[in-house]
Amino acid sequence: MQSFPAFHILSARRVIVAGAGEAAARKARLAAAAGAKVVFIASGLDPHLTAEWSGRAEFDARAPSAAVFAGAALAFIAVDAHDEAAALARYAKAAGVPVNVVDRPDLSDFLTPSIVDRGEVLVAISTGGAAPVLGRRLRERIEAILPQNIGALAAFARSFRDAAAARLAPERRRAFWENFFDGPLASRVLAGDEIGARNELVEYLNRSQASAVAASGVVHLVGAGPGDPELLTLKALRLLQSADVIFHDRLVSDKILDLARRDALRFYVGKAKGDHSVPQEDIERRLIEFARDGKIVVRLKGGDPFIFGRGGEELDAVRSAGIPVFVTPGITAATGCAAAAGMPLTHRELSQAVTFITGHAKDDGEPELNWRALATLAHTLVVYMGVGKAASIAGRLIEHGRAGATPVAVIEKATTAQQKILKGRLSDLGVLVRAGGIEGPALLVIGEVAAKADGVLLEQLELAERRAA
Ligand SMILES: C[S@@+](CC[C@H](N)C(=O)[O-])C[C@H]1O[C@@H](n2cnc3c(N)ncnc32)[C@H](O)[C@@H]1O
Question: In CATH, which superfamily holds the domain spanning 334-464?
Answer without folding.
Answer: Tetrapyrrole methylase, C-terminal domain (3.30.950.10)
